[in-house]
Amino acid sequence: MVSFTVRLRFDKEHMEEVSAMLRQLTSASRQEPGCVNYVAHVVEDDPATVVIYEQYKDAAALDHHRNTPHFHEFAIGGFYQLMLERQVENLVALS
Prior knowledge:
Elements: E1 2-9, H1 15-29, E2 35-43, E3 46-56, H2 59-66, H3 69-76, E4 85-91
Antiparallel strand pairs: 1-3, 1-4, 2-3
Helix pairs in contact: 1-3
């Protein structure tokens, strides 16, 4: 299992546009055969910060995700163009 979080910061004025792209990316990503979990969050006390929790069955499934048309459209060509900061935390399950 491959699990990680992605923390992204944006200008507040872009959040409506970013949220729309994240909804579309989330919906499409959850349909991928190797996607176990894909949940985008806005931080309650900081609405210009997004945290995405992602899980894939293996590295090949993550590779597939990163090469999909929807990832290129909504992430790379979409909200990545608006982000101020990006931090990835790779996770290791305890059980």
